[in-house]
Amino acid sequence: MPPQQGTSPHRRRLRLSSRQDARWLAAAASLAERARPLSRPNPAVGAVIVRDGIVVGRGWTQFGGRPHAEAMALEQAGVKARGATLYVTLEPCAHRSDRGPACADLVAAAGLARVVAGVVDPDQRTAGAGLERLCAAGIDASCADDSTCRESLAGFLMRKTLDRPHVTLKLAMSLDGCIATASGESQWITGPEARAHAHRERARVDAILVGGGTFRADAPRLDVRLAGLESRSPAKLVLTGDDVPERWHALLDPQEIRALDQVQYLLVEGGAGAAASFLEADLVDRLMIYRGPVLLGPGLQAIGDIGLESLASAHARWRHVDSRVLGRDTLDIYQRAREGKGWIV
């Protein structure tokens, strides 16, 4: 049944009725990965329509933002959508545009019985209005406030709530924390499997950044060199005041990333100065640390001075979320928390 009169559906958290709800939201989040980052400037959304335990429609945001995930799933489901349940990672939009109708209207017209949204849309043009419109149409519509869906929408949520992209700092280092020898030699600390994984990560972001020292010393290509994904190379940024070549964009300060409104996901690859700048500015949300099984002794440390004066002021808010073996190397992934905001992923 829809929420009782006077209860705003976007403020009522849905208690998932079964493991099946969580399972289908996770399936929708998995589909959303296909849209990242090709859906920009729109969020990468995934949708699954389920009827009697069988998937009858699925979709994800298409290139450039249209069609939306719900529209794709509804078209695939056709008449089978009637009486079914829609699981969608983000609340269906409530605003029309010159590119198409509001998804809330499409969903309402399809005769669905139930809609479970993973996250309420923070865009003020929707912000709960989509769920309210569905409830008004007699559909049982609620938000699950699902962590898997939030993670899949991290860049969009960051952009809408903090006015900046989601930032991943990637470090490839030796066992003793060095990214190069004392003479500056760094190729290759990690092996081919780790480098291939790093290229996959590049294909999932809107832009990639290096520091001025790395830019001048290595002239990095910062492209994606995986078969079939070459066209997914991100925009290239350099943290420097010097002139840069065509197709590069220079930033003087990490805070300038706020102005890059098309960037939802930013990957910072190096070097030590750029890593320190972003950490000191408190702009890193995710750490990816690749470790090669070598010791370099007095080499170049992975992170420069981040202005800490005591152990008590150290960045101690990192949560280990994943670990894997890549050939001879290891990868550890950490996410961080911000006071009063819970885990930002």
Describe the structure.
23% of the residues lie in helices and 26% in strands. It contains nine helices and 16 strands. It has helices spanning 19-32, 69-77, 103-109, 129-136, 147-152, 154-162, 192-202, 212-218, 272-280, and strands at 46-51, 54-60, 85-90, 114-119, 140-143, 166-173, 178-180, 207-211, 235-239, 248-251, 265-270, 286-291, 300-301, 318-326, 329-338, 342-344. The model is unreliable at 1-7 and 340-345 (pLDDT under 50).
Short description:
By secondary structure, the protein is α/β, with parallel strands linked by helices. Helix content is 23%, strand content 26%.
| Biggest beta sheet summary | 9 strands, mixed
The total count of helices amounts to: 9
- The total strand number stands at 16
Shape: elongated
Rg, nearest Å: 22 Å
Helix content: 10-25%
Structural class determined from secondary elements: alpha/beta
Strand content: 25-35%
User: Low-confidence runs (pLDDT<50, min 5 residues)?
Assistant: 1-7, 340-345
Separation, N- and C-terminal Cα atoms: 32 Å
Averaged pLDDT: 86
Tell me which oligomeric state these chains represent.
single chain
Q: Which series of helices and strands comes N to C? A: HEEHEHEHEHHEEHEHEEEHEEEEE
Helices and strands in order:
Elements: H1 19-32, E1 46-51, E2 54-60, H2 69-77, E3 85-90, H3 103-109, E4 114-119, H4 129-136, E5 140-143, H5 147-152, H6 154-162, E6 166-173, E7 178-180, H7 192-202, E8 207-211, H8 212-218, E9 235-239, E10 248-251, E11 265-270, H9 272-280, E12 286-291, E13 300-301, E14 318-326, E15 329-338, E16 342-344
Parallel strand pairs: 3-4, 4-5, 6-11, 6-12, 8-9, 8-11, 9-10
Antiparallel strand pairs: 1-2, 1-3, 7-13, 12-15, 14-15, 15-16
Helix pairs in contact: 3-4
